[in-house]
From TrEMBL:
Keywords: Glutamine amidotransferase, Transferase. Residues 88-198 form the Glutamine amidotransferase domain. Coiled coil: none annotated. It comes from Plasticicumulans acidivorans. This is GMP synthase-like glutamine amidotransferase. One of its GO terms (cellular component) is cytosol. One of its GO terms (molecular function) is transferase activity. It comes from the Bacteria.
């Protein structure tokens, strides 16, 4: 019997739907690099990663080219209907149909819901910025005793899943974002907020969007930055990463 040390690492495909502004990427890494760091640490060497620049039209040849898939955020909305989005949505349907485990974050959460029959819109509630807290539905085996009544992650979004796809379970939500996390049986799950965004990255991104891009309201942004600076803030990034790793590995175990 193979020991864990002798089992080859699983290859995980990171579907990169965007890249940060160059100044942010130079200091904090790309979205795909942040995914690899977060989920790689949670997998403790059992995963290795391949990146696909789906925003540039690069898609895997087949749903099982990798053992599992991670889908990043993006500045774009699914309603932008950019040329790479429809092929990506079709690929996601193939992945789910093949039963290959998949996890999406932010835009990844949204386009997965869109691909499977849900609705994504620019929310009338406005921007969600900084740390957000969501009521959590627990009791799933891949949580493995890691549950809690609340989930806290950094958010940067004004789009939301407003209607969940048929058959999707709401895993977490709030008054601001009722569909903050969705579960699709034992093959896919997704989160609106960003486990890969730590305090420093979130602070740099909000500052950039406010000062360089001019897309964020200064008062709203200031409140989010104050919340990020609170020394008592505890984000659940590592907890979510553990869930995703367990979810994938339980799927592989059958």
């Amino acid at each position: 019997m193979d020991t864990p040390a002798l089992i080859a690492p699983r290859r995980i495909g990171i579907l990169e739907a965007d890249r940060p502004a160059p100044a942010i990427a130079a200091r904090y890494g790309s979205y795909a690099e942040r995914f690899a760091a977060l989920f790689g640490a949670a997998a403790d060497g059992r995963w290795r990663f391949r990146q696909y620049a789906v925003y540039a039209g690069e898609l895997p040849a087949s749903a099982d080219e990798c053992a599992g898939w991670l889908l990043t955020g993006s500045r774009h909305g699914v309603y932008d209907a950019l040329p790479w989005m429809a092929p990506l949505a079709q690929f996601l349907r193939r992945v789910v149909g093949a039963g290959v485990p998949l996890a999406g974050i932010c835009f990844g959460h949204q386009i997965l819901a869109h691909a499977l029959g849900g609705t994504v819109e620019k929310s009338s509630r406005g921007w969600g910025l900084g740390p957000h807290r969501y009521a959590l539905r627990d009791g799933y085996p891949w949580m493995d005793g890691d549950e809690g009544g609340q989930l806290c992650l950094n958010a940067v979004h004004q789009d939301q899943v407003t209607v969940a796809p048929p058959g999707a379970e709401v895993l977490a939500g709030s008054d601001f974002c009722p569909h903050a996390a969705l579960l699709y049986g034992d093959c896919a799950l997704s989160f609106q907020a960003h486990p890969e965004f730590d305090r420093a990255f979130e602070t740099a991104l909000l500052t950039y969007l406010r000062d360089e891009r001019g897309v964020l309201d200064p008062t709203h942004t200031a409140a989010a930055l104050d919340a990020l600076a609170d020394p008592a803030l505890q984000l659940d990034s590592a907890r979510v990463a553990r869930w995703v790793v367990r979810f994938f590995e339980q799927r592989w175990a059958g």
